[in-house]
Amino acid sequence: MAELQSGGGGGCCPPMDLFRSEPMQLVQIIIPIESAHLTVSYLGELGLLQFKDLNSEKSPFQRTYAAQIKKCAEMARKLRFFKEQMLKAGILSSVKSTTRADNNTDDLEVKLGDLEAELVEINANGDKLQRAHSELVEYKLVLQKAGEFFSSALTSAAAQQREMESQQTGEMTIETPLLTDKEMSADPSKQIKLGFIAGLVPREKSMSFERMLFRATRGNVFLRQAVVDEPVVDPVSGEKMEKNVFVVFYSGERAKNKILKICDAFGANRYPFNEEFDKQAQAISEVSGRLSELKTTIDAGLLHRGNLLQTIGDQFEQWNLLVKKEKSIYHTLNMLSLDVTKKCLVGEGWSPVFATKQIQDALERAAFDSNSQVGAIFQVLHTKESPPTYFRTNKFTSAFQEIVDAYGVAKYREANPGVFTIVTFPFLFAVMFGDWGHGICLLLGTLVLIVREKKLASQKLDDITDMTFGGRYVILMMALFSIYTGLIYNEFFSVPFEIFSHSAYACRDLSCSEATTVGLIKVRDTYPFGVDPVWHGSRSELPFLNSLKMKMSILLGVAQMNLGIILSYFNATFFRIGVNIWCQFIPQIIFLNSLFGYLSLLIILKWITGSQADLYHVMIYMFLSPTDELGDNQLFPGQKTAQLVLLLLAFVSVPWMLLPKPFILKMQHQGRHQGQSYEPLQSTDESLQPDTNHDSHGHEEFEFSEVFVHQMIHTIEFVLGAVSNTASYLRLWALSLAHSELSSVFYEKVLLLAWGYNNILILIVGIIVFIFATVGVLLVMETLSAFLHALRLHWVEFQNKFYEGDGYKFSPFSFALLDDEDE
After folding, report:
1. Residues with Cβ < 8 Å from 308, sequence gap 6 or more?
2. Range with the lowest mean pLDDT among 682-696, 718-732, 750-764?
3. Which helix (H) or strand (E) holds 270?
4. Where are the transmembrane segments (predicted)?
5. Please, what is the end-to-end C-alpha distance for the chain in angstroms?
6. Which of 156, 526, 767, 784 is most buried, with most CB under 10 Å away?
7. What are φ and ψ of residue 764, in 5° steps?
8. Which H or E run contains 338?
């Protein structure tokens, strides 16, 4: 374990990189101006240096490279514009370009500006041509439909004229006009000339349009409408919509003005129309010719636009990545400070100790490639500032580390629960989910994600799928442990199997038909692995499994809580805080094991000896009547004396946790500040204690009352938590029982019930219902439920024994993280 404390290599075993975070160092880099850009670029490719902002007092506009960032932002805007245009045109950007992209940002800026200007011009011309095309289409429809109005009206008028002439020779009737044509034409000044307006109105507004015309002119208009069969593109909005052709006949200028205003209000497009048939035919011919020409021009423009967008798409990803890199480089350069001579940039940042050689190599390479006469200077700074936390993870361990980080990032060099979570998290999940049939289903689903991980990693996934894919190895471990615990419980979709051997029990006689344990005798050796299948289906199944799982939950809980307390010892040893060992670790381990460690021992002894002792009675009367005789509940000689000793140790450990530590810390504080002026300025000892405020004389403030209250809260929390946390582990028993019973209900009340009808249709329906219930309830809801309960057991019951989790993550400047930040 000394190797774990040092976090380094050596010894017989490889170093556990996850147990403690990587050793970090604060470094200073002095870079000549001429090689600054290339140096930061190489450090971004390396991705192992987290820069500190040395210009935090300056606004973004006051920094050195504000103009370059503005230029990059403008190029990013143009690229976003290109992306929108490509999405509208259905053109995908090529991931791998055959042509080499421009690495010079100045050339790229000019090129992007030219492409944007050309694309904007093409779009503007295309919009004008499309609008003109839509107007001509509507004009053609007006000429055709309105021409039909006039031709039908002329035909009707001619028929009426012939009818009137034929009736003039007959008798006068009530339908005979009072004035003949000759009489009417006698005074030309009294003839009324009707005007008309033709156009198209949206069909959904046609009824409102008609009512408004009638009300505005008090009925002094005549409106004809015709439905256009196909939707047409509106010239103004550019959207397809259903329209009606209308012709409004009116008399007088006032009526005309009202009609024009109503047309504008309803979005009705008006077009000129001549009532002479020859001119109508000529207009239709001209419009058709112009439509044909416009169609050819628009097609040529779309082809040119498509070719231009395809050219952009071939290099879009390279351009986009280059602009992102440039912007991130200048953002980082703005975090550096100019020295007095304004010839060098000074930067500070955190890096892992192992990356020192790589960073120095990158600095030398940048100085050589930029032809700089002076190389960059790299030096390590000494500081009391708390470094960031960095764990080297891979695709397997990263998901487990994320589970821990979701609770809180480990403090620098603090013991990391992620190492143990890799095993304990899926195991506790499996204790609640134990069924090797369901475990195989989970395993098959996870293997699909793992086999296709390269393809899925390159795709854009929805939130739930992305979360499931990210935790694929967690689910893999959960599935494997579920198969293991399912074999222990001997449950395959709630059905027991004699996998490892035949049952150790058999019926004594024929009266054993009810399969109760009363009529069973042991005829073979004990079932070698897991629960004997004969327990399933017996009347003693539920009491037996309840007792087994409840005691097992307590054993697992006490073991994991002891592990947490032991890890607090390694933290105290690593950070050299002896007071935490003597006044925290020792009394805590005594208190927990005096009560619940003793209970765990009684459970194991009862299993070994087969005793009928009542453990509830033993634990209750250990507090209420510690001096009474145990009688039948005695499991080993001297148990009464042992209980008195353990009870005394538990009571002593509470003030042991509460009182000494605040006084020891006070004495340590006073000892540090006696003769402080004669102490050396630098100290090699590291301290876990957080830096407290310093007054003007450099003395740390020590509030004894505050420390004492904090210790009292910590003591009360541990004492009460020891009871509540142990009880909390009983959720392992409850969830396991619920899962087993639900699985049994679905099997017996759905599948077996459908089988008993001897009807193929009912059997198929039963199988479908069973599959959907198993997948929906047991493989989805129960999986999520067990996952959340296992999460709570780790975050609350396990990690609160040793884990502070008040650190901050190592966030290096890295080009590999640009896509994630963009997301």
Report:
1. 115, 118, 119, 122
2. 682-696
3. strand 269-271
4. 427-451, 472-489, 554-577, 589-609, 641-659, 760-781
5. 42
6. 767
7. -65, -45
8. strand 337-338
Query: Which tokens sit at 193?
Result: 């000339």
CA distance 740 to 79: 57
Task: Quote the CA–CA distance of 723 and 594 in Å, as a whole number.
Answer: 12
C-alpha angle with apex 750: 745 to 751, nearest 5 degrees?
A: 105
Percent of the chain that is helix, strand, coil (3-state, to 5): 65, 10, 30
**What are the C-alpha distances in Å from 278 to residues 141, 275, 488?**
17, 9, 97
What own/partner pairs with CB < 8 Å and gap ≥ 24 does 223-231 have?
Answer: 223/247, 223/248, 223/249, 224/149, 225/201, 226/145, 226/148, 226/149, 227/203, 228/141, 228/145, 228/200
List alpha helices for 610-688, DSSP H: 615-624, 639-658, 660-673
pLDDT at position 686 is 40
Closest to 474 in 3D by CA, of 420, 405, 398: 398
Q: What is the pTM of this model?
A: 0.80
In this structure, which amino acid lies at residue 360? Q
pLDDT band of residue 190 (cuts 50, 70, 90) is: low
The phi-psi region of residue 638 (left if phi > 0; otherwise alpha if psi is between -120 and 50; otherwise beta) is: left
Helix (H, G, I), strand (E, B) or coil at 633: helix
pLDDT-derived band at 101 (thresholds 50, 70, 90) equals low
* C-alpha closest to that of 37 among 69, 60, 59, 62: 69
573 has pLDDT over 50: yes
Dihedral angle computed from the Cα positions of residues 496, 502, 507 and 510, in that order, rounded to the nearest 10 degrees: 80
Task: Supply the mean pLDDT for the chain.
Answer: 86
CA distance 214 to 222: 9
The predicted pLDDT at position 511 comes to 58
pLDDT (tens digit per residue) in 552-567:
999 999 999 999 999 9
pLDDT at 8: 40
